[in-house]
Amino acid sequence: MKNISAITTSYKSNLKKICEVRFKVFVDEQNVPEELEIDGLDDEATHILILLGDKAIGTGRILSDGHIGRVAVLKKFRGKGVGKLIMKMLIEWAKENQLKTLWLSSQWHARGFYIDLNFSCTGDKYEEAGIDHIKMTRKL
User: Fold this and answer.
1) Residue-wise pLDDT tens digits, 112-137
2) What pTM value is reported for the model?
3) Does residue 1 surpass a pLDDT of 90?
4) Could you write out the DSSP letters of every residue in the chain?
5) Do 87 and 60 meet the contact criterion of CB atoms below 8 Å apart?
6) How far is CA 101 from the centre of its chain?
């Protein structure tokens, strides 16, 4: 895709664009309650924001303990490498910050995406916000 850019940012610096993507994907599309989507951890996280021109099309975040979350790509841009770019940038940030282990809660249907990025399923399937999930980890 042309005119695509990827930035590492804070929540405060790009709150509107980050929330725009996450709300479209999680709240509107997947019916996650708004109060679960905003969990109070965004200010502590490092965020990745993918832009097409000046329009936000993808985002994800990582906490200092290696917890990756809120990875979201607008529907029309899925399958085009946007999610992998987000993850590669989050993994690179983790390496630069000398983290040893990454972990995330994958939606069940998306676990293959993370397996392709060398994450492994740990534990049993569980439900969160009405969606099946599984914990996944990756050693760096």
Assistant:
1) 999 999 999 998 999 999 999 999 99
2) 0.95
3) no
4) -TTEEEEEE-HHHHHHHHHHHHIIIIIIIT---HHHH--S-GGGSEEEEEEETTEEEEEEEE-TTSEEEEEEE-GGGTTTTHHHHHHHHHHHHHHHTT--EEEEEEEGGGHHHHHTTT-EEEEEEEEETTEEEEEEEEE-
5) yes
6) 16
